[in-house]
Specification:
- The complex is a heterodimer.
- Chain A is an all-beta fold.
- Chain A contains no helices and eleven strands.
- Helix content of chain B is 0%, strand content 55%.
- Chain B starts with a strand and ends with a strand.
- Chain B is built from no helices and eleven strands.
- The mean pLDDT of chain B is 89.
- Chain B is mostly beta strands.
- The chains are: A mainly beta, B mainly beta.
- Chain A binds chain B through residues 4, 31-32, 34, 36, 41-46, 49, 89, 91, 93-108, and chain B through 4, 6, 40-43, 45, 48, 50, 55-56, 88, 90, 92, 96-110, 112.
């Protein structure tokens, strides 16, 4: 059974700081890993998707890396801004049977960026 | 409308009520999903539909009944719920190919359900 763990559970930083969020997964037989952002009481916004054959993906100030063999992914946020405050979720996708692919989520990291 | 929409956004219901949640995707996808997000727990997959056929039921109690009349619409029918069913219910959609392949999932804003 896949388990996804995110560390830290909460993080508070001053504006402008660079930061790293960590995600680990127990079953390395994944097809991809997605990072999402969730604002309070809202749905999920997809930030980055890394295929299992890739090592990293970048979008603006965000960079996500994947080390499948060690079961780890990191999300790097450069020059953080108060608008980055949200919960960040990672999810590992693997085959669950037949042609189905299942996302397993971590509990998330609650990020607060202070002005 | 664009992306994935869900209605209602908030719902309060008694334990003896029957209600339905609606999800619609405008992305041309052919797979749809229901997830449950409870406080302090990871998102839990409830149901998966591929090409309108239910392909996964993640041990969900029968008081939750999904319906997928076409590849753009997904419903979750609720009856005789318990207070512990109070949660944020999220719908998602993605591409799906019967030959396989894992695709990015796009989520709706969710329905905040409170069972009293």
């Amino acid at each position: 059974k896949q388990e996804v763990t995110q560390i830290p559970a909460a993080l508070s930083v001053p504006e402008g700081e660079n930061l790293v969020l960590n995600c680990s997964f127990t079953d390395s037989a994944i097809y991809n890993l997605q990072w999402f952002r969730q604002d309070p009481g809202k749905g999920l916004t997809s930030l980055l998707l890394i295929q299992s054959s890739q090592r990293e993906q970048t979008s603006g100030r965000l960079n996500a890396s994947l080390d499948k063999s060690s079961g780890r992914s990191t999300l790097y946020i450069a020059a953080s801004q108060p608008g980055d405050s949200a919960t960040y979720l990672c999810a590992a996708q693997r085959r669950s049977g037949g042609s189905n692919y299942k996302l397993t989520f971590g509990k998330g990291t609650l990020l607060t960026v202070n002005p | 409308e664009t992306g994935v929409t869900q209605t209602p956004r908030h719902l309060v219901m008694g334990m003896t009520n029957k209600k339905s949640l609606k999800c619609e995707q405008h992305l041309g996808h052919n797979a749809m999903y229901w997830y449950k997000q409870s406080a302090k727990k990871p998102l839990e997959l409830m149901f998966v539909y591929n090409f309108k056929e239910q392909t996964e039921n993640n041990s969900v109690p029968s008081r939750f009944s999904p319906e997928c009349p076409n590849s753009s619409h997904l419903f979750l029918h609720l009856h005789t719920l318990q207070p512990e069913d109070s949660a944020l219910y999220l719908c998602a959609s993605s591409h799906f190919l019967s030959g396989g392949g894992a695709y990015e999932q796009y989520f709706g804003p969710g329905t905040r359900l409170t069972v009293t």
